[in-house]
Amino acid sequence: MEETSREAVATAVQRVAGMLQRSDQLDKVEQYRRREARKKASVEARLKAAIQSQLDGVRTGLTQLHSALLDVKDIQSSLADVSKDWRQSINTIENLKDVKDAVVQHSQLASAVENLKNIFSVPEIVAETQQLIEQADLLQAHRKLIELECSRDDLMYEQYRMDSRNTSDMNLISIYFEDVQGLSDELAKQLWMVLQRSMLTVRRDPTMLVSVVRIIEREEKIDRRMVDRKKQTGFIPPGRPKRWKDKMFQVLEGTVSTRIEGTQSVTREADKMWLVRLLEITRKYVLDDLIVVKNLMVQSIQLHIHVQEGMMGHPELHSECDINKLEPLLPRDVVDDLLSKYVKTFTSNITGWLRKALETDKKDWQKETEPEADQDGYYQTTLPAIVFQMFEQNLQVAAQIDGDFKEQVLKLCLKQMNTFLLRYKEEAVVYKEDHLRERKLPQCYVQYMIAIINNCQTFKESINSLKRKYSQSSVATDSDAAIERTLNEVAKEGCQFLLDEVFLDLENHLNELLTRKWLTGSHAVDTICVTVEDYFNDFNKIKKPYNQEMTSEALRRVVVEYVKAVMQKRITFKNADERREGAERMIKEADQFKFLFRKLAAGEDTDRLCGAIAAIAEVFKLTDPTLLFLEVTTLVSKYPDIREEHIQALLAVRGDASREMRQMIIGTLSENKVSYSGVTQPIFKDITVPTITMTSMTSMATAKLLK
């Protein structure tokens, strides 16, 4: 111990000698002494803090063990109570059987009341349906038939649920609706009749054939729904599944067979050339029918006959010669001139088309009904589909000319797309500004702004699809980069507009934070959390990755606004009790934010951002002012973007830090400043601390004099 003391004294002497090597350094003795005193105080504070931390840890551990023991006893007692209540409730559950039966009966009666109108009007609807079938109004007849079947099936299902073994009531319902099955059979006969004469029908009344196919598709959907319900409940209505689609193919197959068999007009015995005649007649009939199918039938039917076209040798179905061996019909210069005119016309037309498409989309933004959603539930408008349908049609034409011209038209489309997106971005900004002038209008502003954001992702996917389909080059062009940049800007600004909408609603509650009202009891943070969660129920309709980025930005803005409230020094704590109460409220509210944004999946930065509020609270909560330096150092190490004025503001809000203490903390931190790498998301970087102006100082002084 003595040797250590001697070494310390020797080291001190050596340091003092190093400091006082020149006479002019004697003037700085007092400065050196204060600096050494600060260092000594800092070391002592750290040692004291380390010991205090160890003691606090042991105390906390003992407290938690005691609390855990009490919790185990409480749980043990609660489990005993639950077991006792469960035994007592067994008899009660058995007594509820009558209530259960009453509920089932009520459900059956409710279904009967719901279908009462249709039940009483069954004979009338049956007669109307029969008349519609006779008039060949098949779609209307099918609609009436579905109404009758739904009423019957609902009643039977409720009866089945109440008592599946009661066949007498089931038979009563079946007898009352017995005409419905007859109508279904009669309608089916009409459908098969139309299909048997499909080649004639498609010439005279093609809409009739379309109606038949639509009716069969509807019945197939009902069949699938009823089969699924049978798997769940065991009930399936009479006559289901109808399997009309299978019957349709059987009828068509029979029609084709009959058509071919009917062409045999002679036999082997009557004419030796009977096979030649049969094949020639068959060829003629099949050829005529295929031409009708190709020109009049729907596209899906055409696809099935393309395989056969090459064997028919008809110019309307297939080319008989190799066009690659033919000379060009027009000279090259004439072709180039025509293509040049086409490009000019196309450029002019597509500019007009895009302008009209955007104007139409803007009108939709003012609607009082929500935009449509895609199959995944994300809001969207029809704008991307309309735009890329234009591009697709023109690229299909260009592809028929040659590959180079196709590439030229694609580049032109992308160039026009970039110009169009810049206008789209401007219109989105105008839409937001108009809304801010009158926030109640448009009624569905939030939903259509979400659709605008989602359209950006749809535009990206459609552009990539066009490039894969019509371009042989994989090299990115200037237009590609510009389009990508503009779409990202539109989406980012749209998300920002929506967050601005949220924070406009939160403004009054944010202004209430860290005030006297907040300290004495305020529900500001509760309201903030409820409001944010309510908005994000709508924001779930935003596509990835924009929804994730928006949630992260919402968390950052909430935390920044909270920290900003601290830095504005709206409150100065008067004593230790106020500091403790305020700190505990801040920690609780940080946990509220953390719970909310974890629920919203804000990302990995949630704990760090919310932890900033808790870290500031620890500075306020500290009871020993001599340990302030250590607590502030911890805060700075976690959040290196914090500045000197922020620390000054925190100490001012704390209310008990002396001027010497503040100077010591700021001075020491300045000497050991932590550099900010910018890797993590900043919190304090954009938060300014308000300065006291001469006017406000004069006002404060006047107020003190008046007191």
From TrEMBL:
InterPro entries on file: EXOC3/Sec6, EXOC3/Sec6_C
Pfam assignment, any one: Sec6
Subcellular location, principal: other
GO cellular component, one term: growth cone
Subcellular location: Cell projection, Growth cone; Cytoplasm, Perinuclear region; Golgi apparatus; Midbody
Keywords: Acetylation, Cell projection, Cytoplasm, Exocytosis, Golgi apparatus, Protein transport, Transport
GO biological process: exocyst localization; exocytosis; protein transport
Domain of life: Eukaryota
GO molecular function: SNARE binding
Subunit text: The exocyst complex is composed of EXOC1, EXOC2, EXOC3, EXOC4, EXOC5, EXOC6, EXOC7 and EXOC8. Interacts with EXOC3L1. Interacts with BIRC6/bruce. Interacts with MYRIP. Interacts with SLC6A9.
Its job: Component of the exocyst complex involved in the docking of exocytic vesicles with fusion sites on the plasma membrane.
The family this protein is said to belong to: Belongs to the SEC6 family.
Name recorded for this polypeptide: Exocyst complex component 3
UniProt source species: Scophthalmus maximus (Turbot)
Encoding gene per record: exoc3
